[in-house]
Write a structure and sequence with these properties.
Length: 503
């Protein structure tokens, strides 16, 4: 059904109902432009942006660009327009805009090709495809390739403003994180660490700040959150990066050999000590000693540890000679040392000495906005190692990953994607390629009886989105709500566009 149209022939994609429409001709667009300019003098809805946001519009027809620019112009929004997709691609890579609005059919480079390039390069950029005529297949293809919206020309100015306004509201929230990311040579990468979420950006900033000066640091966080990678980054960014980085896994040492491993021994000091041996503290002299799983250090060894940390004095087992070493110590644990202090499993003095400087690694469940970058990184790596042509995930599979709670964090994600790459039979990983436990945990609306009503609602919306293959138009219809309401819901639940696309 056609909606009464204030702007002559302008009409939203939703209303086009599969009716074939020809691409705008310039004179038609020009005729409407004057109407649009009229209407823009008194915009019905204005979204105010505090910081500069970047929108790129690409269409081979300059009059369409005029129309888009006029309709979307807002204070705080910079609109860059291109008729040449190649020039647009160049510009996008240099400026990393928040949203790209592109025409589907263009000479030189097809809009779909440009869409794929952008999404593969940075999945956090929202790409909206504008099409001259509605086609279900092309809409599905665009969504599967990572477009977050598919609009049909002609489109009503207020509908366009609303759709793009919603997309632009989310980047505001991540502005701080992205600003930090942009300082890095390759945004989203910090040494071997990947992440552009606000909490990981805070971790990177802290590492950068303390790496030149630290004497001891405590790294805490659940298993697989990247503590060892952070330890390596601290060493690499320290003034002693050319000196040794010695790893001691405290959980792997037999209790009776602990002292000898850490501090060394002299020949004959105990049965089996057939020659003098250097301990790990001495081996790390001038460099960094990484004490992994520090919570496993036997209680009776802890005072000797504290002494070595405080004064650098170490004594080999069976020797009365004290040697002084100059070692920077990084300790890591996935246990709750504070609780261990309370139950007297860990010495309070050693805990306070270690925790003067603490870096907390957030669990993956708290930074799902990092999933697209991490996924891209791991899939790329596995595809290369396995010599397969896997280049990504279907949106259904992405949605499934983003709904999973990741108790094993990045290590688990890495394993899951390794498994999936191995199973994949074509270039996209689909849900059938994911391990069974991931699929089992994603049983749609969920059966957890302790969920609040809000959680049930969120889960159900995400489930419907997944069932709709990520197509929001279809999901909204299945949910019996308007597409705008669905956008508002996703926005209100503070999912940024990168994650929203995965959800
Ligand atoms: N931010 C990240 N970017 C890329 N890879 C990561 C990131 N964090 C962790 N990894 C990868 O995940 C795996 C686990 O990381 P790591 O060994 O550093 O975790 P951990 O916190 O030390 O875990 P555990 O407590 O179990 O020892 C490694 O293969 C690592 O390369
Ligand atoms: Mg570790």
């Amino acid at each position: 059904m056609r909606r009464p149209d204030l702007f002559g022939f302008f009409q939203s994609a939703r209303d086009s109902g599969g009716v074939k429409r020809t691409k705008h001709t310039s004179d038609l667009a020009a005729r409407n432009e004057s109407v649009v300019r009229e209407s823009f003098k008194k915009p019905e809805k204005t979204v105010a942006f505090a910081a500069q946001l970047e929108l790129v519009v690409v269409d081979d027809d300059p009059s369409i660009l005029d129309f888009l620019e006029t309709v979307l112009a807002q204070p705080g929004l910079r609109i860059s327009r291109f008729t040449d997709p190649l020039k647009a691609w160049d510009f996008i890579r240099r400026t990393r805009p928040d949203v790209v609005l592109l025409d589907q059919l263009m000479p030189v480079m097809d809009g779909m090709e440009l869409l794929s390039r952008i999404v593969e390069w940075d999945p956090a950029i929202d790409v909206v495809v504008l099409s001259g005529q509605y086609s279900t297949e092309r809409a599905v293809e665009a969504v599967q390739k990572g477009a977050c919206d598919y609009l049909t020309k002609p489109i009503a100015p207020e509908a366009l403003r609303e759709r793009i306004g919603l997309l632009l509201a989310a980047p505001q929230k991540k502005r701080r994180a992205v600003a930090i990311g942009r300082e890095l040579p390759d945004a989203g990468k910090f040494g071997d660490l990947i992440g552009r979420s606000a909490c990981m950006s805070d971790v990177f900033a802290l590492v950068r700040r303390i790496a030149p000066h630290f004497r001891s640091v405590l790294l805490t966080g659940a298993t697989g959150t990247g503590k060892e990678l952070v330890a390596r980054a601290l060493h690499q960014m320290s003034p002693v990066k050319a000196r040794p980085f010695v790893i001691c896994n405290c959980a792997a040492i037999v209790e009776t050999l602990f002292e000898s491993e850490l501090f060394g021994h002299v020949r004959g000091s105990f049965t089996g000590a057939t020659q003098d041996r250097t301990g790990l503290f001495e081996a790390a002299d001038g460099g960094v000693l990484f004490l992994d799983e520090i919570g496993e250090v036997p209680l009776k060894m802890q005072p000797k540890f504290l002494r070595a940390l405080q004064s650098g004095d170490v004594q080999r087992v069976g020797s009365s000679v004290t040697r002084r070493v100059n070692v920077r110590v990084i300790a890591a644990t996935n246990r709750n040392l504070r609780a261990m202090v309370r139950t007297q499993e860990f010495r309070e003095d050693l805990f306070y000495r270690l925790s003067m400087l603490e870096i907390k690694l957030p669990p993956l469940a708290d930074r799902k906005e990092d999933l697209p970058l991490l996924t891209r990184h791991f899939v790329g790596q596995f595809a290369k190692n396995m010599e397969k042509d896997v280049r990504g995930l279907t949106r259904r599979a992405q949605a499934m990953l983003s709904r999973y709670h990741w108790p094993g964090n990045i290590r688990e994600l890495e394993n899951v994607l390794g498994h999936a790459c191995m199973m994949a039979e074509n270039d996209l990983i689909d849900i059938g390629d994911l391990p069974e436990h991931i699929r089992e945990k994603n049983d749609g609306a969920g059966r957890n009886e302790r969920m609040t009503l809000g959680e049930v609602e969120s889960r159900h919306v995400l489930y419907m989105l997944e069932q709709a293959g990520g197509n929001k138009q279809l999901a909204a219809e299945m949910l019996g709500i308007s597409r705008a309401t669905l956008y508002r819901f996703l926005n209100a639940h503070e999912q940024d566009p990168a994650e929203r696309e995965l959800a």
